[in-house]
Design brief:
Structural class: alpha+beta
Keywords: 4Fe-4S, Cobalamin, Cobalt, Cytoplasm, Iron, Iron-sulfur, Metal-binding, Oxidoreductase, Queuosine biosynthesis, tRNA processing
Pathway: tRNA modification; tRNA-queuosine biosynthesis
Pfam family, one: QueG_DUF1730
CATH topology of one domain: NADH Oxidase
Low-confidence stretches: none
Number of strands: 10
Strand order of the largest sheet: 1-2-7-4
Cofactor: cob(II)alamin; [4Fe-4S] cluster
EC number: 1.17.99.6
Shape: elongated
Number of helices: 16
Mean pLDDT: 93
Length: 361
């Protein structure tokens, strides 16, 4: 980054206040500023990687400690502006869907349009507003697009504290929101972190995890996490987790749903996050009946699109294998028993046997 100052250096204190106001005008709930010293997080990151908790997410290991060193990721960075935007949309109660084995549970963040584009565009607008006051300056916008320790950065900026499920918690908004960052070479005054965390002795998230992925407070083994298994994992989902997955076909919110702080989670006013295609209350059979053309058309602009049709079907097959048995489910599974995708075939075969539609050999 090369910061070319305006004729006179801006009042950075005033600029920081303006940034926070502009962020709210752009639809972000909050903006806060941190420095770039994350050295305190390096040991924990190294240990997490050494244990293999990142699973097949090779990019996490590939970038290593660069995740904790913003100035190595973007040379010249001296300040990070972090924003968050709530995404929870009004819709069918999650608990009701999870309790109905015929329904498909989709993580609340994926019910609307893909958040990456929404946040990136707004962050770029924020960057442009800063440029109008500060002149040309070095900056980069990130929304899940680089090795950024975003929770640690947001925590350092005072936007919340890390919950035992490893997500950022905020007293006013809980944890149902997206984070984004603007790395800059502007020496903006940093906001103080919160004086303490507010989870206390609560372990609701740890106890609620269907696959025991929260192996210790603040530590998640992604290889056991349903979000990882249904989204990031490219191959077959390990047998040991398939029954525990239940009807969760894309992601999992259990650790957030039981968190007391999410009683205060506000619904988002952002229209892009409104529920599409009735995905908050839809049957597994309906989704399993989609053709690849249906999937491509309906999931365009959705974060679900990136997992691809075969992964989508294989996740749904697990849900159908865990559902209360019915002739319709048996027929649908048998119809895909010889699917062209090996991944789909394997999960369909498991579903048929788990539900007793065919005998185990």
């Amino acid at each position: 980054m090369n910061h070319t100052s305006a004729q006179s250096a801006p009042d950075y204190q005033q600029l920081a206040q303006s940034i926070k106001s502009w962020a709210q005008e752009l639809g972000f709930a909050r903006a806060a500023i941190s420095g770039i010293d994350l050295s305190h997080a390096e040991a924990g990151l190294s240990e997490w990687l050494a244990k293999g908790f990142h699973g097949e997410m090779d990019y996490m290991a590939r970038h290593g400690l660069k995740r904790a060193r913003p100035a190595e990721l973007v040379p010249g960075t001296v300040s990070v502006i972090t924003i968050f935007m709530p995404y929870l949309a009004a819709g069918q109660a999650p608990d009701a869907i999870l309790a109905d084995t015929s329904k498909a549970y989709i993580s609340r963040y994926a019910l609307g349009r893909d958040y990456h584009k929404v946040l990136r565009q707004r962050l770029q607008q924020l960057a442009d507003k800063i440029s109008a006051v500060a002149g040309e300056y070095g900056h980069r916008v990130f929304v899940d697009s680089a090795p950024v320790l975003e929770v640690e950065i947001a925590k350092q900026a005072g936007l919340g504290w890390r919950g035992k499920h490893s997500l950022l918690l905020n007293r006013e908004f809980g944890s149902f929101y997206f984070l984004g960052e603007l790395f800059t070479d502007l020496p903006l005054p940093a906001d103080p972190p919160l004086p303490k965390e507010h989870c206390g002795k609560c372990t609701a998230c740890i106890e609620a995890c269907p696959t025991q992925a929260i192996v210790a407070p603040y530590q998640v083994d992604a290889r056991r996490c349903i979000s990882y298994l249904t989204i990031e994992l490219k191959g077959a989902i390990p047998l040991e987790f398939r029954r525990a997955i239940g009807n969760r076909v894309y992601g999992c919110d259990d650790c957030q749903l039981v968190c007391p702080w999410n009683r205060f989670a506000a619904h988002s006013a952002e229209t892009d996050f409104a529920i599409r295609h009735g995905l908050d209350d839809v049957s597994l059979l309906e989704l399993f009946g989609w053709t690849e053309a249906d999937f491509t058309q309906k999931m365009a602009g959705s974060p679900i699109y990136r997992i691809g049709y075969a992964k989508w079907l294989s996740n749904l097959a697990i849900g159908l294998g865990n559902a209360s048995p019915s002739a319709a489910i048996a027929s649908a599974l048998l119809a895909r028993r010889h699917d062209e995708s090996e991944l789909v075939r394997e999960h369909v075969e498991w579903a048929l046997r788990n539900a007793g539609y065919v005998e185990n050999e």
